[in-house]
Write a structure and sequence with these properties.
The complex is a heterodimer. Chain A is an alpha+beta fold. In chain A, about 20% of the residues lie in helices and about 35% in strands. Chain A contains 8 helices and 20 strands. Chain A has helices at about 60-70, 110-120, 125-140, 155-170, 185-205, 215-220, 240-245, 250-255; strands spanning about 25-35, 35-45, 50-55, 75-80, 85, 95-100, 175-180, 205-210, 225-230, 230-235, 260-270, 270-275, 295-300, 305-310, 315-325, 330-335, 340-345, 355-360, 365-370, 375. In chain A, the strands form 4 sheets. Chain A has a 6-stranded mixed β-sheet, sandwiched between helices. In chain A, strands 12-11-13-19-20 form a 5-stranded antiparallel β-sheet. In chain A, a hairpin with a 2-residue loop joins strand 15 and strand 16. The relative contact order of chain A is 0.12. By secondary structure, chain B is mainly alpha-helical. Chain B contains 15 helices and no strands. Classes of the chains: A alpha+beta, B mainly alpha. The interface of A and B includes residues 99 and 109 of A.
């Protein structure tokens, strides 16, 4: 399973100091903890001003990668370039990156003003400078009235903003954010998410954002980096990752409910090719496939399956087991043939009821094909 | 009960009213009795705690005959100040006090610094052999002082520091209790606070100095109190390590009063009272420092 480069990722830039067009470059980074391989060779180029989201389940190495960029962990192998400079041997404070921690990590014995000004004071900036910067950050984050309070007197959202402010005042080359919204309640999280995005548009700094929340990844990222078991699975724009997942893992990890995976086989019968899936489920592109016959997996998003009338020639009978209504949409869990279960998105208003017999078919261009190793095979006429 | 009474009283007949009023009085009496009982117990406990102390203060303000007069005078009026005069001007008491404060003060100041630094290193830094060091310290904690006195004296003697202030200050510094306490305290601090400091450009020492120290202030105060009182009251080691009168500490000096001029209870009492003054002041001075800003604001609960 090879690490897939993004559209701009085919880097042949030589990492000379200061000459790189990338804000951050990661070359062959590995991290071993004893015998455990946390990162197994990661390559990633990040453009200036980009909002990159590292997405993956816990233990996939995304936080480790962030810590290596920050300098809080040393890579076992590989190189990290920040602003074109080899950063492997720079101390965290000399890397020109600022970090926002999952649990904020505000200094409890300092007021908001001191918390914001601390990174500047430690860099021996002039007092007036510090004051101006702190006040600018405070007004940007609506913290002006809280400046003389201590962290324990602030609400969760305010603490989160102070943590952001502490990163902003430094005007670093890049922001590193380690699940910064995961400690907020659902409503505040949505609010802070859009606040963060607005802030990113105003400040325009390169941001690397770690999360396991795919909604955050899909809504915020310029490019999403999907990781698993210490390897990058795919790098791409959110829509691209959703529509053209590089492999089975990305297909099922991104998207909720996940993509339907149907095991089947490609067969040539009487000179015509068809996919033989559960209960004869077929997809029209199968006929044009330039592949040898054999076992295959077809992935179809819930919106790629449509309910059709019983007379539709491509329709396949299915039994509705469960109906989950989410606002305007409803998700049907239905069994097709012997034991295969699929999820189908329908409009809530016209949704069939539980236990009902329906007919479904694969929408044109909705099918994705995966080989035995799990990698996606491009299909002719695939909708981008 | 009384609430119920308040609403119903107006509608009740005169006879009923008398009965109800009787209940109210009984209830009041019961509560007063319970209150009195509580205060009696509190008073007794206070008496048990304060009486010996008061007796010593009293004895220090009486002359030799008054101390043994019967019935004892509970208020020494006029107070007899001869004991204090004798203590301050005819014994080595001022010198003993100076020695004690110097030794206990130095040991406390040095130990708070090195214990917190060692505690930080053991709690947070990536050191090889960290566990072995910690284990060795735990084992040391279990060795009683009595077992150490002889080898300790041999070492001090070999170093040629017996009968010097160094002999009084150096050995207590090796007590691992403080390192252990500090390590436990610092382990409780979240790692991300130090990481934030690292990204803010702090050196390891600056992290210790500017982030860790302010946050473990209550722990430092507890440690200072423990060390100071421990030193203030230590007797065996100072007795063995020094023989010169000039190096005697309070405990040793006061004990030696016995061997001079017979049983002078007034003088001994005055010495006991005067010895309490610095340690009392020390406690009061540090009392407010026990409170530190809670960690609550650093992290999400």
């Amino acid at each position: 399973m090879s690490a897939t480069r993004g559209p701009d990722g085919g880097s042949d830039a030589t990492p000379e100091a200061g000459s790189s067009r990338f804000a951050i470059e990661i070359l062959g980074v590995q991290k071993h903890y004893g015998k455990v391989l946390a990162l197994r060779g990661v390559d990633l180029d990040i453009e200036p001003g980009e909002f990159i989201v590292l997405l993956g389940p816990s233990g996939c190495g995304k936080s480790t990668l962030l810590k290596i960029i920050a300098g809080l962990e040393d890579p076992t192998d590989g190189e990290v370039y920040i602003g074109g400079r080899l950063a492997n041997y720079l101390r965290p404070g000399d890397r020109d990156v600022a970090m926002v921690f999952q649990n904020y990590a505000l200094y409890p014995h300092m007021t908001v003003r001191d918390n914001l000004g601390f990174p500047l004071k430690m860099r021996h900036r002039a007092k007036d400078d510090v004051k101006r910067q702190v006040e600018a950050a405070a007004s940007l984050l609506q913290l002006t009235t809280e400046l003389d309070k201590y962290p324990d007197e602030l609400s969760g959202g305010q603490r989160q903003r102070v943590a952001l402010g502490r990163a902003i005042v430094r005007e670093p080359l890049a922001f590193l954010m380690d699940e910064p919204l995961s400690n907020l309640d659902a409503l505040l999280r949505v609010q802070m998410r859009s606040e963060l995005l607005r802030l990113h548009k105003r400040v325009g700094r390169t941001t690397i954002y770690v999360t396991h929340d795919q909604v955050e990844a899909m809504t915020m990222a310029d490019r999403v980096v999907v990781m698993r078991d210490g390897l990058i699975q795919q790098v791409g724009r959110p829509g691209e990752v959703y529509r053209r997942p590089a492999n089975r893992f990305v297909a099922t990890f991104v998207g909720s409910p996940p993509m339907n995976m149907l095991e089947g086989a490609l067969r040539t019968v009487d000179g015509s090719r068809r996919f033989e899936g559960p209960a004869g489920l077929d997809f029209p592109e199968a006929a044009r496939l330039d592949l040898p016959d054999g076992e295959l997996t077809v992935g179809i998003r819930p919106e790629g399956l449509t309910v059709v009338g019983p007379s539709d020639p491509a329709g396949v009978a299915a039994q509705v087991e469960l109906v989950e209504t989410v606002g305007a949409d409803a998700y049907l869990t239905a069994t097709v043939g012997a034991g295969a279960t699929v999820t189908i998105r329908v409009e809530a208003e016209t949704s069939p009821g539980e236990g009902e017999q329906i007919h479904i078919r694969v929408a044109p261009g909705a099918a994705r094909l995966f080989d035995a190793a799990g990698d996606r095979l491009p299909l002719p006429g695939e909708r981008g | 009960m009384s609430q119920l009474v308040g609403t119903d009283l107006r509608r009740a007949s005169a006879g009923d009213q008398r009965i109800v009023a009787g209940h109210v009085r009984a209830e009041h009496r019961r509560r007063r009795l319970a209150g009195a009982g509580r205060h009696l117990i509190l008073g007794l406990v206070t008496f048990v705690l304060v009486a010996p102390f008061y007796y010593v203060v009293l004895a220090s303000l009486k002359n030799g005959t008054e101390i043994f007069s019967y019935p004892p005078k509970l208020l020494p009026i006029p107070p007899y100040l001869g004991n204090y005069h004798k203590l301050l001007f005819e014994t080595g008491f001022p010198r003993w006090m100076f020695n004690t404060l110097l030794v206990a003060g130095s040991v406390t100041a040095i130990k708070v610094v090195i214990d917190s630094m060692a505690g930080y290193a053991l709690a947070k830094l990536d050191l090889t052999g960290k566990r072995a060091i910690f284990l060795a310290m735990l084992i040391l904690l279990m060795v009683p002082l009595g077992a150490l006195i002889v080898p300790l004296w041999a070492m001090a003697s070999a170093l040629g520091i017996t009968n010097t202030y160094l002999a009084l200050i150096l050995p207590p510094l090796a007590n691992p209790l403080g390192v252990f306490l500090m390590r436990q305290f610092i382990l409780g601090l979240p790692n991300d606070l130090e990481n934030a400091g690292r990204l803010d450009g702090l050196s390891e020492f600056a992290i210790y100095r500017k982030i860790v120290l302010p946050l473990i202030k209550p722990g430092l105060v507890v440690l200072a109190v423990i060390i100071f009182t421990d030193q203030f009251m230590s007797f065996i080691w100072p007795l063995i390590a020094t023989s010169s009168d000039n190096l005697q500490v309070l405990t040793v000096g006061v004990a030696a009063l016995r061997s001079h001029g017979g049983a002078d209870y007034g003088l001994w009492s005055a010495a006991a009272v005067m010895s309490l003054v610095p340690i009392g002041l020390f406690f009061f001075a540090l009392q407010r420092q026990f409170l530190a800003r809670s960690l609550a604001g650093a992290l999400k609960q």
